[in-house]
Amino acid sequence: MGNTVIRDANIVTMDAAGTIVRGDVRITDDRIVGVGDEEEHFVPDQVVEARGRVLLPGFIQTHIHLCQTLFRSRADDMELMDWLRTRIWPLEAAHDDESVYLSALLGIGELIQSGTTTLLDMETVNHTDAAFRAMAQSGIRAISGKVMMDRAGEDIPSALQENTDRSLADSVALLEKWHGYDGGRLQYAFCPRFVVSCTERLLITVRDLAEQHKILIHTHASENKGEIELVEKQTGMRNIVYLDHLGLTSPRLVLAHSIWLDDTERTIIQRTGTKVTHCPGSNLKLASGIAAVPALLSNGVQVGLGADGAPCNNNLDMFQEMRLTAMIHKVQHGPTSMNARTVLRMATIGGAEVLGLEREIGSIEVGKKADLILLDLNKFHAFPSYEADLYSRIVYAAGRGDVDTVWIDGHVVMRGRVMTTIDEAAVLSDADAAISRLLGRMA
Amino acid sequence: MGNTVIRDANIVTMDAAGTIVRGDVRITDDRIVGVGDEEEHFVPDQVVEARGRVLLPGFIQTHIHLCQTLFRSRADDMELMDWLRTRIWPLEAAHDDESVYLSALLGIGELIQSGTTTLLDMETVNHTDAAFRAMAQSGIRAISGKVMMDRAGEDIPSALQENTDRSLADSVALLEKWHGYDGGRLQYAFCPRFVVSCTERLLITVRDLAEQHKILIHTHASENKGEIELVEKQTGMRNIVYLDHLGLTSPRLVLAHSIWLDDTERTIIQRTGTKVTHCPGSNLKLASGIAAVPALLSNGVQVGLGADGAPCNNNLDMFQEMRLTAMIHKVQHGPTSMNARTVLRMATIGGAEVLGLEREIGSIEVGKKADLILLDLNKFHAFPSYEADLYSRIVYAAGRGDVDTVWIDGHVVMRGRVMTTIDEAAVLSDADAAISRLLGRMA
């Protein structure tokens, strides 16, 4: 890849000091080698003129289901259990290799166009290899894994049922194939769906395997009141208490949602360094509730942001999640809570912390990976610019259409809003064919 | 303007039957003359190919402050009274003719680019003629008026203080100059800011003048708990009870916000046919609260949507307000409440009803004004399209960047995302100069 210089940008570094500086960013191969200063001996192979534009670290989404992108606009304004039983599970069961691949590409295309460069993903039971192929091809940075659900409920389609041994064996096979791909751009995470769908033996084995391989465990927890009642019935414990009892709580555990926590559970999360993903769009649309994010943050819990899946959002757009995060907590906690800088932090370096990747990504600093997005805010909707707070312009006014160029791992994956790794027209056409096939299979 | 045919669009008519039809829309001058069918004898001067695209009635925003657009990103994460006293009022007081004109153009540019074709606006105390000039030039359909605030509080800058007679005389002069401009594209409304800032004589005179001229009264009501306490202290009555007591409640009265209503007040609004504007973005960002919109709608109250002003949102984007409206009520009222079609209705024909313009705008029907927006949803973020619910795609997945072409009153005001009536680069540059001048005046 050689040497690139991004010239004369307004650089919002998201470093610990909150540095915003006008100047150049220099990249050699996949790494940032200079920020804000000049270096006479740097000979660039490529020069990107960025005067009047804003350079940010790429967004990091810590809870996504790429396998559901094909189901967008097909499961709206519904109760959660109807949503799962009549739409999401049957559609996941109908998936084939090709449809999982296209669902991932469609999602990754949207994610890159809206500035996300890293995601923590959860796939379905089968065909996860196809999702990894899409991630490999697209250039996205991703941590993903097949979903694990070895405690079959009566509502679950047979194609999604698996026994404990097969669930573990399939997961380990994917881990061995994909973890560390392309210099670590792709990684594996164990993805037990939620306590309700998993046996104790599966959860304990996942705990040991995650420790052994030094990888994440990505699960849902306490999204819904019905879910936590089921867990209490099944285990006799509160959800997080049970996960702690099994020894799963740790900095390797990422909990999506975490809305319905009691004080004991919040203390467990804090004490064990367990990570949380806030998904405001999904939580509102499914009427799940509003997580106590200000309290979690003030207790030092690391909280990232995620759009969840396309059918419960219906975008995978970090700008939407940032706006919601900045807005929905204010009614309860006051207008000064969740300010723009706090929220942009969650979308960047905060997300990196959730993934344990804060030394590699999440800010624009020398030595970090070149995961960068260039924004053009010279638009009616983000103006005036004169002495205006950049955090505010990004969180409250900007949107996906303002992302001009995206670098991941030093590679340009979008330039002037044109994707370089994904054929947009072909994916759209193939996506329609694929969902048509899945719906036919369900009928 | 002659004859235009928009060919082979997916037409979301928003008529009473909820018709969605694929076909042509024919326009003669400023009116729709055909929908969905073909007419051999129609000789078009212009043909717009719209295959694979979605045609909607233009969005109608029923609460906007164009005079505040210049203040975007300069008043974030603040308490309401700090927000008014330290930012909004001093900035409004610093305005001059040129800055009000630019503030309006900047806002109208954003509104048109995001699909809004009609707005109900409230200006500041002075320079409102300049805002009307911007509205006239831009081609937008608008109802606007100078704000009236003849009960000066000690916090209010002297430039915003006016006595009752001047407030009324200035309003009537603007009404006489602008009401009915360009065949009725521009109209005047009386805009008492809120009960707290108005004398009883002003409110009563406004009531009579509005009746005499058959025009709207546009005000804020019950946005904030502190506000309703002040009104009770001032009048001894609840806010809406007081407005009703003075005889202002009627189908001519549009109340922005209406969050803190009791049962009596809701009944008054319903009984008198008073209109309400829901402003979810503003209400969340200023921590005002969440209006009981599902209850108002089920009681037959006509409720429109509005972005309010740029400093409390920070966009003027109907897609953002629709997404929020569809999402924020579900946590309290369940996931089936405020479905996509209900929300799109509020953004179009529902807004027309609030303005008393439901015979002229708000749906794609023969005889109505040609206020239309053409969307291109062939994008990652709004796909798949195969048999997907169009209401859902528009409300939950689409965004401002998907608006391709906009007609107002039969005129093209944006084509292929290029504005035809506003010089975007010049307005951005002049807007920065203007806010710099206002900040200098405040210092």
From TrEMBL, chains A, B:
Family annotation (InterPro entries): Amidohydro-rel, Metal-dep_hydrolase_composite, Metal_Hydrolase, MTA/SAH_deaminase
The organism's place on the tree of life at top rank: Bacteria
Keyword Phosphoprotein: no
Boundaries of every Amidohydrolase-related domain copy: 54-413
Keywords in alphabetical order: Hydrolase
Regions crossing the membrane: none
Full protein name: 5'-deoxyadenosine deaminase
Taxonomic source organism: Paenibacillus terricola
Lineage of origin: Bacteria, Bacillati, Bacillota, Bacilli, Bacillales
